[in-house]
Design a protein that fits this description.
By secondary structure, this protein is an all-alpha fold. It is built from eight helices and no strands. α1 packs across α2, α5 crosses α7 and α7 runs antiparallel to α8.
Amino acid sequence: MQTMLRSASSFAATQLASSRLRLLFPAATAAASRSACRPMTVLSKESGIEHRKENWSARKAATGRPVSPHVTVYSFPACALSSITTRVTGCMLSFGAAGLGLVELAGGGGAAAELMSCVGGGAAAGGFLVAAGTKFVVAFPLSYHFLGGLRHMVWDAKPEMLTNVDVERASYALVGASLLMGGAAAVV
């Protein structure tokens, strides 16, 4: 017992002395500690050098174990896909607005409105199909992002609606309503 107390007190004294040295000579002790330390590894120095030379794929193939699967093998829940789509549609709308702004800046006053009326009126090559497709490409993200925002406002106001069944049902309803709104805007 006395040996343990003596070793504990000598350890505490060593720690106190080293902390005093760090306070008195911070640059010197930091340089000394950096040179004395090496990265922790379970490999010997020689095997560590060989380990760095090998290809990662070759090392994994040599183990014979399967590589951890990527996200493509997992089935995302409808709510996760709906949330991702809300973010993607928001980015699409931002890029679309920036593109129209650039058209306006490059073409002068009224260039963006003229472009939209040309495409929307079917005057572009392809007629009705191009106009309907362009309208859908604009209307779907706009309606999806807007309805997704409304859905989140309702969930924030009424958190009791956040059950697994209701969230999945709301995600499917969001996709359906957005497709209907986008389709209706495409034929108008």
